[in-house]
Amino acid sequence: MNMDRKKRIEFGDFQTPDALAVQVCEYLKAQGLRPDVVVEPTCGVGAFVLAAAQVFSGAREVLGLEINAAYLDTLRGKLQASPTLTHVRLEQADFFSADWSARTRGLTGRLLVVGNFPWVTNAALGAIGGENLPEKSNFLGLSGFDAISGKANFDISESMLLEVLRWLAPRGGDVAMLVKTTVARKVLAHAQRLRQPVADARMVEIDAKKHFGASVDACLLVIRLDPTASTSYDYTVFASLEDRQGRKVGHRQGLIVSDLDAFESCSYLVGQSPQKWRSGIKHDASAIMEFTRGAEGFVNGLGESVQLEDACLYPLMKGSDIGSDKVWRNKFVLVTQRAVGADTSPIRALAPRTWAYLEAHAGQLDARASTIYAKNPRFSIFGVGDYAFRPWRIAICGLYKALRFRIVAPIEGRPVMFDDTVYYLSFDTQVQALQTLADLESEAARGLLSSLIFWDEKRPIKTSILNVLDWSKLHADMQRQAALI
Ligand SMILES: C[S@@+](CC[C@H](N)C(=O)[O-])C[C@H]1O[C@@H](n2cnc3c(N)ncnc32)[C@H](O)[C@@H]1O
Question: Is residue 205 within 8 Å of 238, Cβ to Cβ?
């Protein structure tokens, strides 16, 4: 890898465009921020230093720190062209070795820490042999295995933001940082866990593709710490710097709620799902365990034509089929067990050709990487149990950004199996499935689920969310209402 690129990765170097830095500072000013001192701890070529110096005209001092001396030289050049900005002070410093507590103790008045920390994870640093890391990797105060092994993956910006919160907490002040949305959420969760005096917090979505050419969800995270004010860990998410309405996010009943207003009216449905949502089959060997049926018979993912008994073959629909409402595409999957851990050797007598096929491909099946396979009978799969063999299903794909449930009928007299990106409920009869679908599609049920889903996540729909919807309470509610009439 060329040295410049390596350095750019190691230092998570995405300089903020000047116009965005000005927009952010104007936004903060419109929110009422009037700092006496502004600190930009990793200021780069200084978009935020210059913007803050211009926008916060009442500030006594704007302090910019940066590890890269060449960047500071560039910034000094820019400052020479703006002779009015005399209250800017620059220093070359490594964020991780600077004594921030001592430094901030000397700063009086309202303090704003603003900027854009490096965009890199410790794992990416490890891959390039970079060392731009906090000294103690257990900055999260983790307990257990992750702390001992130092294996937890984190963003460098996450560790820097937590450090800023640590030194701001006793004296109070504002932080406004451009960060990945996932980092912002984690930092707010840590702030709550560490009981930081958060008086107000917001996340304003930023178009990272437009401003940084980066395909990642990013935001401006703004936190006001004030040890003298009442603490609240709810925060508001705004769709843009222009959005004035926002939606409130916070924790309720042990859940992280993505829309508190919507949640309040449907929260009576929080409980335990009357039937546990399950995920589809996991086998980690699609080329061998999955088949397409064509005019010539069954063909596996290696392109081999095979002849197998029906005994272990079930129709298969993938997450993409469920998520995009496709019809069944003549796909099948080998189901080698009816329960996790069950003995697979009866297949030898029950379906000798299937057993011979499995043995012929044992090399690949035995080499499946996850240790769960090594600890279980040969040719094991996961995601099976009684529930997997009931004929009717309601399914949803966890990867799709839509709350769309789908009834899946048995095909050729057999229940349809799914891959492990699909979550489903199963039923003995079509009537039961249709009744439950009506419940899931009721306004209140959709309202509750929507209020718990974070659509910007990779897998926004999770069993942990689906399983808290107790749709039986819908009927209790209807019965109560009927009794009142
Ligand atoms: C994402 S860039 C943003 C720069 C600037 N904050 C801005 O908004 O344009 C991150 C900056 O952090 C600097 N940096 C990386 N690691 C640092 C460290 N340990 N101490 C100080 N600065 C660091 C990089 O050199 C780079 O200029």
Answer: yes
Q: What count of other Cβ atoms lies within 10 Å of the Cβ of residue 394? A: 23
| CATH code of the domain occupying 3-245 | 3.40.50.150
Ligand 1: centre distance to CA 416 (Å): 52
Quote the tokens at residue 392.
């009717």
Rounded Cα–Cα distance for residues 448 and 471 (Å): 10
Ligand 1 centre to CA of 17 (Å) is 14
Domain boundaries, the chain: 3-245, 278-478
Is any ligand 1 atom within 6 A of the Cβ of residue 94? yes
Q: Which long-range contacts does 187-192 make (Cβ < 8 Å, 24+ apart)?
A: 187/158, 187/161, 187/162, 187/221, 187/223, 188/221, 188/223, 188/233, 188/235, 189/256, 190/140, 190/158, 190/162, 190/165, 191/165, 191/223, 191/233, 192/233, 192/251
Q: Which amino acid is at 481?
A: Q
User: How does strand 198-206 pair with strand 235-238?
Assistant: parallel
Q: What is the pLDDT of residues 375-433, one digit of tens each?
A: 899 999 999 999 999 999 999 999 999 999 999 999 999 999 999 999 999 999 999 99
Report which DSSP code applies to 231. P
Give dist(CA 1, CA 128) in Å, integer: 9
